Every structure is written in structure tokens, then in C-alpha cells.
Amino acid sequence: MSVSPAWEVQEHAGATSWFQVRLAFEDGARVDALAVVAEGRVSIEDVKAWPALSLADLTVLADWIEEPLCRACGMESYADEEPEAADEGDDLGGSRRARPAWPRGIEGRWLVAQEYRAAQEEGLDPVLAVMCATGHSRRRSLRLIAQARDAGFLTPRHVRR
């Protein structure tokens, strides 16, 4: 595995740095990634792999490159930090989510209806508002909106004859 600086942009309060990360495996497979370090956070901007990564491999990519990348940019690795107490109740099985999980069932449908109506009142796209609130795709958001309609939280789309 190799990590090399690609470029750096100086800003008023600090700098944003890009790093080229390359993983080479014994069977000839390789993964190239472009990582961004800004404000003490590391994110992956681009990933190219040959052969293509499976979803399972893509989910562990961060674990593969985390420690060498943090060493290269002078940050502490998340693996070095003390684990938080397990009794907090918000642990989702070790997954890394950008937003909290959307509630399921009737509560989730009610929240979808609230987001939908709030966007309608503001003159915004209600489907896009549900997508942003839930983090789901357009198809999944439309399905959630339909479930909210079926539960009676939203008016029916068409007049029944």
C-alpha cells in the first residue's frame, strides 16, 4: 500500500489536502483512491478498482486505508481512540452512518408526511425533501411517501371513482 500527497490548497483557517492511495494485492488486483483531508476529517472522493469491488469490499475500504492514510497526513487514527461505552444505545452494529437511522413503522411514515407537507407549503419539491431527510434514493423515498398515503397521513393522489 502506498500513500502520496497529490496537492494542497491553503485557505484562510487552514488547508485542504488530497492524497493518492494505492492498494495492490498479490493476485494483481488494485484499488486507487483519492482521499481528502480537511478540518481534521478524512473522506474518500474517488475510488477506482480493478477488478471492480464488491459492496462488501467497498464497505471495508475505509478500514483498509485508514491507518496508513492517517499516518501520512499526521493525524491520529480512529483505531487509536478509546471505544465509546456500549451502553449508549445508538450503536448500529458498527456501521458508519452520516445521519441517524430513519425510524421504521408508523413513526417513520408520519415523519415522511411531515417532511412532504412542509416542502409543499414552502413551494419546494416534496420528493426531494423526503430524499434529503431520509437519505434514501428517489425510488425508496417514493415508496415511503406511498406508505404514508396508505397510512392516511397524506391525501390520496387520485380521486377514487
Number of helices: 4
Approximate helicity band: 25-40%
Q: How would a textbook summarize the main sheet?
A: 4 strands, antiparallel
- Output the helix-strand order: EEEEHHHH
Q: What is the terminal separation in angstroms?
A: 65 Å
- Provide the β-strand percentage band: 15-25%
Q: How many β-strand runs?
A: 4
- The helix/strand class is alpha+beta
Shape: elongated
Low-confidence stretches: 80-98
Question: Quick check: average pLDDT?
Answer: 78
Radius of gyration: 21 Å
Question: If strands are numbered along the chain, what order do they take across the biggest sheet?
Answer: 1-2-3-4
Question: Can you tell me about this structure?
Answer:
The chain is an alpha+beta fold and 161 residues long. 35% of the residues lie in helices and 24% in strands. The protein contains four helices and four strands. The protein has helices spanning 55-72, 105-121, 126-134, 138-150, and strands at 2-10, 15-24, 30-38, 41-50. The protein has a four-stranded antiparallel sheet with strand order 1-2-3-4. β1 (2-10) and β2 form a beta hairpin. α3 (126-134) packs across α4 (138-150).
